[in-house]
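Whiteboard transcription, Tuesday session. T.W. wrote the structure tokens on the left side:
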């Protein structure tokens, strides 16, 4: 006789008028918000810009949901395409059924697209988001509690999970594997945060640590579950997946630490890829237009317009070749050489000639040359 147990909710849906609020969907959405919030704080701490994590999550989350559902439907196809089953149920994601392996795999594709558009390295973004993903999984597992699914073998432990009679389940008390995995994921998040601070992980190693640690826990938790699943050599398919993926993550940790030690110094450049050249070209075009306008003003200044400009009190270059009679010290400072002096009127003329000769066909006097290094 079980003296204590964890009760399951009588329903996983609360109706607000015609709008159903499903516990499973609520847990998934809440997990995503927590992951983005924590990822944003870690990204800023590494020198990134606010909002970048959310911008990339717009790509990663939809891809992840599709990937998670595809993995579940493919590996448990008999639930949707078996005899007497309705294949339309494969699209009812709110009833549960997301495979974390597919969610991470296809979510990474979406994240890669978002990172490429922003011009940032995917490994650095994954490192910032790693503990947040673990916390999102910890929260999302409570969606299984609402749906009374993915529990373990029967037990009479004080923390046993009570399951009511329903489709494909027998009433009783079972190991709360959803709770085990939720607590394990919280521990994984704390481990990644600690290791990242202690060893300054970079180049995707924080994310690899998350994957390896999660797989270690998922292996033994998966082994306890009693829901229907495919078996390979006596082990559930997800156990084999955890073993293979976990080993690959460990290999990446070791090899990456040797090939690329340390952490990225710059995680988000100031100029996005493809933008720098366009901006530089635009600035150069603007400089050329300004230079052409300057040439026209200088040519007009050789004649009657020069006298008019002088009468108006404006500082204009009366002679583009540095004529000694030029009374404007500003003109000499902008490229006509040293200020003209009565003792050596030829000095200003000579300097002006050299300046104008250098400007002909290139950058006109008074034009600003764009600093492409800053672009």
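and on the right, the sequence the group agreed on:
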């Amino acid at each position: 006789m079980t003296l204590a147990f964890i009760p399951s909710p009588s329903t996983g849906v609360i109706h607000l008028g015609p709008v159903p609020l499903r516990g499973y969907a609520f847990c998934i959405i809440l997990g995503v918000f927590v992951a983005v919030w924590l990822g944003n704080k870690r990204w800023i701490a590494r020198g990134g810009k606010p909002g970048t994590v959310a911008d990339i999550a717009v790509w990663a989350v939809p891809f992840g949901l599709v990937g998670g559902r595809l993995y579940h439907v493919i590996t448990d196809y008999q639930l949707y395409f078996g005899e007497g089953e309705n294949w339309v149920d494969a699209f009812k994601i709110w009833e549960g059924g997301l495979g974390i392996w597919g969610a991470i795999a296809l979510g990474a594709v979406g994240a890669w697209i978002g990172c490429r558009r922003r011009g940032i390295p995917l490994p650095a973004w994954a490192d910032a988001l790693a503990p947040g993903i673990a916390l999102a999984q910890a929260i999302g597992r409570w969606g299984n509690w609402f749906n009374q699914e993915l529990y373990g073998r029967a037990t009479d432990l004080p923390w046993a999970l009570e399951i009511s009679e329903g489709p494909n389940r027998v009433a009783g008390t079972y190991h709360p594997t959803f709770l085990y995995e939720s607590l394990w994921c919280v521990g994984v998040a704390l481990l990644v945060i600690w290791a990242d601070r202690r060893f300054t992980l970079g180049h995707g190693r924080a994310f690899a640590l998350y994957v390896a640690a999660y797989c270690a826990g998922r292996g033994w938790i998966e082994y306890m579950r009693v829901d229907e699943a495919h078996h390979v050599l006596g082990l559930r398919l997800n156990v084999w997946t955890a073993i293979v993926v976990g080993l690959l993550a460990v290999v990446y940790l070791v090899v990456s630490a040797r090939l690329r030690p340390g952490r990225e110094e710059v995680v988000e450049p100031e100029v996005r890829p493809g933008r720098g050249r366009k901006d530089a070209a635009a600035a150069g075009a603007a400089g050329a237009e300004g230079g052409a306008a300057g040439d026209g003003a200088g040519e007009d200044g050789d004649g009657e317009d020069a006298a008019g400009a002088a009468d108006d009190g404006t500082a204009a270059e009366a002679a583009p070749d540095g004529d000694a009679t030029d009374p404007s010290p500003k003109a000499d400072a902008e490229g006509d050489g040293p200020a003209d002096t009565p003792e050596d009127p030829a000095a200003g003329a000579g300097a002006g000639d050299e300046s104008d000769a250098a400007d002909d066909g290139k950058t006109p006097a008074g034009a600003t040359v764009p600093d492409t290094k800053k672009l």
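Someone added at the bottom: The beta strands are 13-16, 19-22, 161-163, 172-174, 231-232, 235-236.
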